[in-house]
Amino acid sequence: MMRTYVITGSASGIGQATAEKLKGLGNTVIGVDIHNADVVADLSTPQGRIDAAKKAIELSNNSIDAVIACAGLAYPTATTVSVNYFGVTEFLNELLPTLTQSKTPRVVITSSVASIMPNSAELVEAMCANDEAKAVKIAQELVDAAAGGEQLIYGSTKRAISRWIRQQCLKPHWAGAGIPINAVGPAIVMTPMVDQIIKTPEEREGLSKLVPMPLNGFMEPKTVASLLMWLTGVENTHVTGQTIYIDGGFERIVRGEDVWSWKG
Ligand code: NAD
């Protein structure tokens, strides 16, 4: 069955690989990005999100089956908060009325293994409380302090977005409307985002020590694309609220064997 997908971050990396695979199978893809896309928009601003959603809905002729949110930044800046969290939640809220009309609507978001790494609890709470002004202010204070706290910004955005999925997934407009909403949590994927930080073999070696992936090492974006496609395909009728780690075993290393301890 051919479907219509809206993919953010379609100009590069994971979003681009997913768009190519889906198009190759005959699906319609509406790419959204700050450059080189069907919908050129800045998801870091409230107006940019509204305009992007409006244009995507127009281009789809009011028919969207799935949204795959890949646009993201890894810089230790306040803008990363606006793109990685509010650029997902606010954009999805705008698309929801159209998405709900699909017979098999699906949503998936790219979180990260950074969601289980150290974060700023205050910043995560501000995002989960849907307070963009406060979240941006906290992030900017971390940047201005230049004491290392700014390195917590990226992980905080990914923790918050994985929590948002759990906060939302059972609500009438998601589960009640038949919409599974999940995230993927990749470890290291060879995309331009990672190319910026590993320019030499020594840097690559350093990153593989920091983020060990015993099963098959660093990944190609098409590997993540396959999981994004399954989670947004018609076969996914019952997986919701999850962050599925696709990480060569890194999450298992960090969280250990027993992840069932919440019941004590
Ligand atoms: P990438 O840099 O190759 O692609 C990200 C895309 O997002 C770019 O095309 C960029 O233009 C777009 N984007 C950035 N800011 C935007 C804005 N304001 N408005 C619209 N579009 C904007 O990165 P990638 O590695 O493909 O990352 C995709 C997602 O996967 C991100 O959310 C990232 O955090 C996540 N992720 C990546 C890795 C990795 O190792 N590459 C690991 C875990 C999670």
Label this structure with key terms.
single chain, 264 residues, alpha/beta, Rossmann fold, seven-stranded parallel sheet, 7 strands, 44% helix, binds nicotinamide-adenine-dinucleotide
In angstroms, what is the radius of gyration? Answer: 18 Å
Low-pLDDT sequence parts: none
Helix segment tally: 10
What's the total count of β strands? 7
Structure description:
This protein is α/β, with parallel strands linked by helices and 264 residues long. The chain has a single domain (4-188, 221-245), classed as Rossmann fold (3-Layer(aba) Sandwich), CATH 3.40.50. It has ten helices and seven strands. The chain has helices at residues 13-24, 46-59, 78-99, 121-128, 132-145, 153-168, 192-195, 201-210, 221-231, 250-255, and strands at 4-8, 28-33, 39-40, 66-69, 106-110, 181-186, 243-246. The chain has a seven-stranded parallel β-sheet with strand order 3-2-1-4-5-6-7, with helices on both faces. Helix 4 packs parallel to helix 6. The radius of gyration is 18 Å and the shape is globular. It binds nicotinamide-adenine-dinucleotide.
